[in-house]
Amino acid sequence: MTFFSSVARRLPEIVVIVVGLVVVLGRKPNHPKASNLAAGGLALLLVETVVSSAFYAAVPTFVSAPRAIGALYSAGGLLFSLVFAGALALVVAAVVADRAPR
Fold it and tell me: How remote is the C-alpha of 20 from its chain's centroid?
């Protein structure tokens, strides 16, 4: 139940990501490089959103010691922040891709 409430809380994010993927993939014939970068970044964001929700919901189920839960949350937070940063970097790269110099 915790997983579903966590996903429900992030539902607006998930909707924006999915709509973004549809838009980006629809523009792929016109801007293939930018579309691939943006689609990769958005897909990574979608995976990060779902996996992090599952991770934070599952940790208290499998670990009971508060110190261990804290350590896992810290490690997970670092990992998910790195994945988020990578996804954001791909989206930013998509913004400048396929642009002709002025």
Answer: 12
pLDDT tens digits for 83-101?
999 999 999 999 988 776 6
Residues 51-83 have pLDDT tens digits of 999 999 899 888 889 999 999 999 999 999 999
Q: Which two tokens stand for residue 97?
A: 């891709």
Q: Nearest-CA neighbor of 3 among 53, 52, 49?
A: 53
With beta carbons less than 8 A apart as the criterion, state whether 11 and 40 touch. Answer: no
**How far is the C-alpha of 61 from the C-alpha of 26, rounded, in Å?**
41
The sign of the CA dihedral 84, 48, 51, 4 is positive
98 Cβ contact list (under 8 Å, min separation 6): 31, 32, 33, 34
Helices (H), the chain: 2-9, 11-26, 32-62, 66-96
Distance CA 81, CA 76 (A): 8
